[in-house]
Write a structure and sequence with these properties.
Elements lengths: L1 H7 L13 E3 L10 E9 L4 E2 L3 E3 L4 E11 L2 E14 L10 E12 L4 H5 L6 E2 L4 E3 L1 H11 L37 H7 L7
Parallel strand pairs: 7-8
Antiparallel strand pairs: 1-9, 2-5, 3-4, 4-6, 5-6, 6-7
């Protein structure tokens, strides 16, 4: 029952529309060592990933995290996983998959030494007793996903002549004629008939 309470009541702020990745840390307090587990599945608020492969908006994002109060802020550790969709960078066929990333992120308390001595984008920040995990997840997923995914490691890609996927047609080829002989080939083509 305590886990259910931490998964739902602790999960999101109740006032106004917020990202499903915003976590209310009011219950945690600023007592170093206080910890709350966060096990939840939420819809992705946006497309997260690379150009050819990503977590789509609304896809289920599974959070298996530990939210812990430390002297300078809130430390979030654990794993985040979600299904991905994309297309092969060689043959453009759909490439479904799954990504799982480890997350270790510090969110600095307002007026803490960490907040005062780091650049704005170096660490996350606790804002109105909430932390927003979205940018941390975007960064971690971006590093994990391939820049150019493939449907199989040896995908031959598309035929440069006609564009058909070569994986489905192993013997596919085109007879290529040297352009210098093309006119003569046209003259000798039996399908053209006699002049």
């Amino acid at each position: 029952m305590a886990r259910q309470h931490s998964d739902t009541a602790h999960r999101r702020r109740r006032s106004g529309p917020t990202s499903p990745l915003v976590v209310d840390i009011t219950r945690l307090g600023r007592r170093p060592g206080a910890m709350v587990p966060l096990h939840d599945t939420v819809p992705s608020p946006s497309r997260i990933g690379a150009e050819l492969i990503a977590i789509e908006p609304g896809a289920p994002v599974e959070l298996d995290l530990r939210v812990e109060s430390v002297s300078e802020g809130v430390l979030v550790t654990g794993t985040v996983s979600a299904p991905t969709v994309g297309e092969c960078g060689r043959c453009l066929t759909p490439v479904p998959g799954r990504v799982e990333v480890r997350l270790t992120e510090l969110f600095a308390y307002p007026d803490s030494t960490t907040e005062a001595t780091t650049e704005e984008d170096e660490v996350g920040h606790v804002v109105d007793n909430t932390i927003d995990l979205e940018q941390s997840i975007i960064d971690a997923v971006g590093l994990e996903l391939p820049f150019s995914p493939v449907c199989q490691p040896d995908c031959p890609g598309l035929c440069p002549e006609c564009g058909v996927p070569l994986a489905g047609q192993p013997g596919h080829h085109h007879d290529r004629i040297d352009p210098r002989w093309a006119k003569l080939a046209d003259m000798l083509d039996p399908s053209r008939g006699e002049p």
